[in-house]
Amino acid sequence: MVCSCSVTRNYLDWLTSIPWGVHSEENFDISRAREILDEDHYGLQDIKERILEFIAVSQLNKSVQGKILCFVGPPGVGKTSIARSIARALNRKYFRFSVGGMTDVAEIKGHRRTYVGAMPGKAIQCLKKTQTSNPLVVIDEVDKIGRGFQGDPASALLELLDPEQNSGFLDHYLDVPVDLSKVLFICTGNVTDTIPGPLQDRMEIIQVSGYVEDEKKAIAQQYLIPVARTASGVKESEVDITEDALASLIKQYCRESGVRNLQKHVEKIFRKAALQIVEKTEETVAITPDNLHKFVGNPVFLSDRMYDSTPPGVVMGLAWTAMGGSTLYVESALKHSVEGEKSEPSLETTGQLGAVMQESAKIAYTFAKSFLSKHQPDNKFFDKAAIHIHVPAGATPKDGPSAGCTIVSALLSLAMNKSARQNIAMTGEVSLTGKVLPVGGIKEKTIAARRDGVTCVVIPEGNRKDYEELPDFIREGMEVHFAENYRDLYTILFPQQ
User: Fold this and answer.
1) What pLDDT, on the 0 to 100 scale, is given for residue 148?
2) If 134 and its partner were Cys, which of 164, 182, 238, 432 is the partner (CB 3.0–4.6 Å)?
3) Which is catalytic among the residues 402, 409, 413, 443?
4) Full-model pTM
């Protein structure tokens, strides 16, 4: 009797705590919203434009809207923190929970009331905490959601994040339909590959790319340095980080796409400067490129460029990773002389290449033999050559189809014993007939090429629209060629042939 009484009391308590039909007054002032978003974050124009569109639609409809957005990008680019700014710009209450590693459906849908210690799921807890029916809810790490014997939380999210169904969301504990259609859901993740297809289909995915050096410098000067200075208690006149020192810090220590690592290094500089000031060894501290290593240690990155000039058989490619873009080399070499009688044609690949990249190497090998036989019929190199292809560094796993053009170019360079054009990088999948197919991550790859001083890049014709969408400061000073067929790339790489 006592047990049943407490269960019923708990249930009624939750039922009466839900803000049925209560909405917080939303901000429909676009100029104010733009001001708040720009004040808190530098860049991220796609997200800001989308939020301003959302406000405009709400203003014209004169009603509170709900939406499901998903920000996907590398760590540290501001996906979660801009959600808090969006809540402030919209004048909505903010609630965040992470589903990374979550394996229990009850976390989303709640427990049945028959269980001891039963409670509603996160959606109902959010309404009780914010006391409004139109909060902004951030669902973090949606790409790392788990799956256990208690069910599949990703499938439970389908009802929560479906605009057609969430107007009558049914929590197992409350067992009463709750209207979540006015809630603005923002999911965040690093990649879309691990988000189930039906869940992706319900969300509007906005890609958040990494920052280039100029953007990182502006973020450091406008946000990171003032915050670190305040946190360390140092006056503005006591510590000065020169612009050259900041550029060296970004190039040699903080190359990742986000700014989280840059923030840690800036904080480290101010902590060490604060120690020097307190110990009275220095009255004012100036950080320059010459003394930067005393504050943050020796440089982590000197250069991704293993070769100042590439020899025959070596070509630079462009890769996309979850941390952003990077340049990588494809090396090809003969295992033994082609003049020997025992030499037989073969291909070996190393460098921790995944299944897709190994297939790319086989396709590239077949196409390179076909291409050479048409363009240089007298060159019988591939008839006897035992070739070894390696993609450094060996300890880093690599996969994806976008190295096809680079592997073909490395093989042809080796076969003709001729170096490819210097200071050029490329990306693109190649088919057996030589078609250059579009690939992803063009912005990150272009940023990586620019960072390493590459002046010429070759991109598939199918990615022309992606390149043209890039900001002017990324494209400035870069010679770009678009290849539809491998012949287009060949004439750029080996102009004398």
Assistant:
1) 67
2) 182
3) 402
4) 0.75
